[in-house]
Amino acid sequence: MKILLLIIKNFQAAKINKTIQLKNGHHIPVVGLGTSRIAPTDEQIIQAIKNAIDVELAIQSVRQSLANLRLEYLDLVLIHWPMSFQSGGEKVPKFPNGTIIGSDLSKENFELAYQGLEDACDQNLTRSIGVSNFNIKQLDKLLSANNRRHEPMVNQVECHPHLNQEKLLKHCHNNGIRLVAYSPLRRGNTILFDEPKLKQIAHEHNRTIAQIILRWQLQRDVIIIPRTSKKHRMLENISLFDFHLNQTEMSTIMSLDRSNNTGGDDDGREIRFESASHLSEFPFVKN
């Protein structure tokens, strides 16, 4: 299991006071700043990944992150993947053929790692916890545990017009879980930005295609984390609160979903992680 530490900081070039309330009462911004392309020495980058397949390893990961960041508590900590990777050594251990080395299958249990995050909550090391890349079946397994002390506040997944995650979004909302979209612009893939319908909507609003896509997500109650290291792009990505898409436009963008495509056609997914597809908790399977 991997633990992803996520802290969403305000972008100081513009005040962002738009937040969303989690089920536990805490608030987080509706627009975060994806930072994976910025040098890891930058103070604005706050990301810690640790292999974890049991309770103790999970809470150790949180404690180590706090020590590295010199903080007393975190706002939100996520289990990055439902799969378990071999502990020790490389962050993503691989066989010579490139496939991921999983943990002992008897230990491939994200519920144990989640219990560690619950302990972190109990010890006031983090305000909220959640998951990332979990499908509906995995969420239900987590939610149905009899000994659950803290519910997941968010599920962070790839989400954009070509992979709108509508079924997962509704399931999350029905269970009080907020969906967080990473790669909300499909990593800038021109396949998405060349969509004529998006170009038309952007033209009518005098906005960029990126702004139209991000506004569409906000109106679906999806938290977004657009990724860029360029200041002008950051400003563009947060200038989303002075216009509105009508229902026809929202439906038009929804119609661009490709997740049901088969036979080798583009299904919209950018993050495939096929080298881990042999692991028992690999999440990207058709429901």
Quick synopsis:
By secondary structure, the protein is α/β, with parallel strands linked by helices. It has one domain: NADP-dependent oxidoreductase domain (TIM Barrel).
Question: What are the salient characteristics of this protein?
Answer:
TIM Barrel; globular; two-stranded antiparallel ribbon; 287 residues; 9 helices
Folded structure, characterized:
One of its GO terms (molecular function) is oxidoreductase activity, acting on the CH-OH group of donors, NAD or NADP as acceptor. Residues 58-257 form the NADP-dependent oxidoreductase domain. Keywords: NADP, Oxidoreductase. With 287 residues, this protein is α/β, with parallel strands linked by helices. It has a single domain, classed as TIM Barrel (Alpha-Beta Barrel), CATH 3.20.20.100. The protein contains 9 helices and 9 strands. Helix 6 packs across helix 7 (209-219). The longest helix has 15 residues, at 55-69.
Q: How would you sum up the global shape? A: globular
What is CATH's topology name? TIM Barrel
- How many helices? 9
Overall pLDDT score: 82
Specify the helix fraction band: 25-40%
What number of domains? 1
- Could you tell me how far the N terminus lies from the C terminus, measured between alpha carbons in angstroms? 22 Å
Q: At the fourth CATH level, what is the homologous superfamily?
A: NADP-dependent oxidoreductase domain
Report the portion of residues in β strands: 5-15%
GO molecular function: oxidoreductase activity, acting on the CH-OH group of donors, NAD or NADP as acceptor
Organism: Euroglyphus maynei
Keywords: NADP, Oxidoreductase
Family: Belongs to the aldo/keto reductase family.
